[in-house]
Design goal:
Blueprint: E1 4-8, E2 11-15, H1 21-32, H2 47-56, E3 60-67, E4 70-78, E5 87-95, H3 104-118, E6 123-129, H4 133-142, E7 145-146, E8 158-164
Amino acid sequence: MIRERVCHVGRVIRTALPAEATNVVALHARARATYYPDGVPQDGTDWLAAWQGAIQRPDGHVLCVVEDGRMTGIASFRTAEGAPADTVKLFQFHVDPEHWRAGIGTELHAACVEEWRADKKRTATLDVHVDNRRAQAFYARQGWVPDPENPPSESDHHLYLRYAVTGE
């Protein structure tokens, strides 16, 4: 498991701590607000409890990017229930919009892939909101492709992507 990875002077990628859940929730909300044209839907999710659970979950990982003392990126992944043991799902991946185009997403993605390799994962999956074109382009640049096992339908709000985790 990644404990700490220094990327640039002042930028570290490491495992998120339970005490940081409030910061994670705030970053998550800022990032989500950028791709919901009518505002972030209020579906009743208690995001603080959800993120606390993800951070404390023994079979999951939450990585964060901390730059000069401020959290600027987060990623949450684990093997989904019922999925093959060699498959990991990227549940959340966000960079603070104030820090876009600074290489944070690319470095965070590389840290995720490093962890997946260490955990002997062969495949990663994710779903991305259909209106989040920026994220779709980012994932395509990283090598993600449409998931042939989950083709989109007309009513889907998400696209399903797949990534082949290979050795270096």
